[in-house]
Predict the 3D structure of the following.
Amino acid sequence: MDEERPDELEKPETRQPDKPEGRAGAGRAFEVSSFIRSMLGSIGWGLKFAGSAVVDLCLPRSCADCQRIGTLPQKSWCGACWSKIPLIGPPLCPGCGRPFMDSPASPDHLCGDCIERSYRFDSARSAALHKGTVRTRVHEFKFGGQLKWAPCLVDLLETAYAAWGLPPPDFIVPVPLHLKRLSQRGFNQAGVLARELGRKIKTPVLVGVLVRKNQTLPQTRLKRNERLKNVKGAFEIAEDRKVRGRRILLIDDVFTTGTTLSECAKVLKRKGGASEVYALTVTRALPD
Ligand SMILES: [Zn+2]
Ligand SMILES: [Zn+2]
């Protein structure tokens, strides 16, 4: 999603990990773990993630929220912090994945936007609501360049993907950034998430097939109609042969109105000939 950088990046939580008696070794292990991780980080991009995967198998991890160290039941999150994440589950819209928080007893049903066929993707899901620690981690990752948060966000993507029951996609495609923004930020947050998810669910990632030809305005402060106009014609297909007849899973960090994902899906289908396009994001921002 194109989201305007917040005026001031939310500060990382400064809560100290609990240090019960007899856990001094865990603290030392974390220092070693952090040192090795930082060494791997300095080697370079590809090695960083490949290396992290190896290190994560061998060394204790710290929870992405409370920073407690140990064997974490949810990979990057301890059980207590995982239970606080506002994960999206039923009842929801089977089309766009919008949760119905105010009517927990109702069955799944289409939302107004899906009844009006507003979206061009076949369906979409998001792992959690765009609030709390997850929102903070998304902002730190995306605007603060804190790539260390990618694994905890991908754990959320993987959980939502597993619960979805989607037929296996042929390819994963990240929502692209315009080259100018890519050079400013140094990385495409959707691309990083897509690569890590692809590795976990053993699905190839296509980068460069869908490209952003126009630099769009940040979507955050635009109304829905303005957003539609803003992203219309912003994307094009560079190599249609790769997606023709294929089932595509689009990846982005945040689903707000779905206009960017819908436009990407439209281009992948109309111009690329993709047979099906699904969209998965870490968080879903609901209008107030
Ligand atoms: Zn925790
Ligand atoms: Zn819907």
Q: What stands out?
A: The pocket of zinc ion (ligand 2) is lined by residues 93, 95-96, 98, 110-111, 113-114 (CB under 6 Å). The two ends are 18 Å apart (CA to CA). The CA atoms of residues 6 and 232 lie 25 Å apart. The chain has eleven helices and eight strands.
